[in-house]
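Thread title: Can someone regenerate the structure for this chain?

I was given the following input by a collaborator and told the matching structure tokens would be attached. They weren't. Posting the sequence so someone can regenerate them.
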Amino acid sequence: MLSTFQYPEFPYRQSEEQRAGRATRHPVVVVGAGPVGLTAAVDCAAHGLPVVVLDDNNTVSVGSRAVCYAKRALEVWNRLGLAGRMVEKGVSWQRGKVFHGEQLAYEFDLLPQPGHKMPAMINLQQYHLESDLVARCLEEPSVDLRFRHKVLNLRQADDHVVLTVETPDGVFHMEAEWVIACDGANSDVRRMVGAGFTGQFFQDRFLIADVVMKADFPTERWFWFDPPFHRGQSVLLHKQADDVWRIDFQLGWQADPAEERKPENVRARIEAMLPGVPFDLEWISIYQFACRRIDDFRYGRVLFAGDAAHQVSPFGARGANTGVQDVDNLVWKLAAVVQGHASERLLDTYHDERAVAADDNLLNSTRSTDFITPKSGASRVLRDAVLELARTEPFARPLVNSGRLSSPTPYPASPLNGADGPGFVAGPAPGDPCPDAPVRSDGNGDWLQDHIGGGFTVLVFGEHPANRRIEHAGQTVPVVVIDGGVGAADADLVDTQGLVAERYDARVGTTYLIRPDQIVAARWRDYQVAEIEAAIDRCLAR
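Best answer:
Regenerated them for you:
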């Protein structure tokens, strides 16, 4: 029980197919109602896919767990109409400080350039995030959220999956055309399909202490190496919502979890860190971690996302953020297949793109862990030398690694990428995420990202094509004209600060095709319908 949050208990309800005693086939079944599974359900609904969500629990996550959500994940939730209340409830931040001993080693800014709708990061306890996502799912007529439904087994056929599900009323069978497995690092679904899940397991133990306190520390990420109050180890401090502060203490390999978890021992550590500051303990946990990923994100008609597909250390906030980007990549492709606009080959590109992102996150997460917890005397000497140099020498600061914070991975080698026209010297290339910028729409202040995503979009700078939409391959693609300081007096969007033109390296005629997940599919220096249609075909693996 927490003092700042009352855990809901969601009701179990018997489904119609249970009562009827015969299996019903659903277009999509999501297994797991954590942040990734719930986001997948909302995104399926946004793409017109009816979806059933199965979870063996009946409440939200116990403890704060994931707390840091990065700009790219917030942009995905913004597309789904969810980010506003998350940002309002959460603690926004973009600056961090790294200390060595008692001295400041260096500080950083995650969003040094202005003109973005979403903050660089918010801190928000996972139970608040899940509560928002559950509320949204319950509002969606095409989302069927079923608690206390545990998947016991699944069997794949050529055109569907049969799931055996246990409920308080007994066991029944249901069918799905496609299954999205979001059931966590210990995924039962992954075991059921026989998937590999390999990587590195770390022995280090860390203590999480969530404390309630009134403190005037700035809303920044503070990380200490070898502080005087916790010699030889590291400590992380973050502010969350409701005056809850997350403190992570590195404990080392030999720590006794039962002893370290005792409230009196946790209190002693915090009192040494924050002498004279009154606080109340809210939640305590001991954790170890691994850096692993699945061998293939697609097993027939079962697709894996989030921790079921990859597991990383918590340094860098790459877990939930990466899982949300998995969903962003997957669901538009799944909708195109289910709705008959693309063949199943498109789903193979989900692995092509997200395995690259997972490997990038695993590499960064492993490097962060090795820097924070050096495994030899020589490694520690090198680490400490870097920290000392960083105080005065700018060249050393990029080498300090207290967790490379989550950022989107581009897909430069994606098979879906189309033309990269000549003459571009900057701007997002095919496979890159689209940068945001302020615009004016219908006389009102607005943001570019509010006008792209969910479906294909064409952006044209300073030129009015005859056709303001393209009908192709089952897609209705709007053509959005931007007056990026390059002309077009009656443009759809006005580039109020010139940042759109700057960030997209635009001149008159510059054209971008944007995928439904706000990734650049192709770009040209002039507008040609045939070229755009060919790029759409490529994006749909046609």
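The first strand starts at residue 25 and ends at 31.
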